[in-house]
TrEMBL record:
Pfam families (UniProt xref): T2SSG
Sequence similarity: Belongs to the GSP G family.
Gene (name only): gspG
Database matches in InterPro entries: Bac_GSPG_pilin (IPR000983), N_methyl_site (IPR012902), Pilin-like (IPR045584), T2SS_protein-GspG_C (IPR013545), Type2_sec_GspG (IPR010054)
Protein name, as recorded: Type II secretion system core protein G
Lineage: Bacteria, Pseudomonadati, Pseudomonadota, Betaproteobacteria, Burkholderiales
Organism of this sequence: Undibacterium griseum
Spans traversing the lipid bilayer: 16-36
Sorted UniProt keywords: Cell inner membrane, Cell membrane, Membrane, Methylation, Transmembrane, Transmembrane helix
Topological type in the membrane: Single-pass membrane protein
Superkingdom of this protein's organism: Bacteria
Amino acid sequence: MLPKKPHKKFPQGNNGFTLLELLVVVVTIGLLASYVGPKYFSQIGKSESAVAKAQITAFEKALDTYRVDVGRFPATEEGLNALVENSSANPKWNGPYLKKSIPLDPWGRAYRYLSPAKDKDYEIVSYGKDGQIGGTGDDADIS
């Protein structure tokens, strides 16, 4: 039989981190988070506005195709739903003009559609984060 090897004991000396070293690391992480966090979260509102603008652009393209087929834009009463279903049983309707159903705006509210609108054939509006007419920043209307 082989003799048993004695257990190795940990050498005395530097076995880990000191409390001061850990505090320096925690403070450094905190400083980085306080610098990066506000910059990151300020971009969220901009991305929601960009999504709303992109959705409105998609609606505009679908409305243009609808007009070519039907000869007019949907009335306010028909709304944007006229792009996905032929509720008026129009024989010229050649839809659906959108691949999916009408999405809500990035803040969870329906887009407002008017046709005819003031000085335009139609208007599509999202009232922004606050859901109220007017506003600035994230609360600004998008049309």
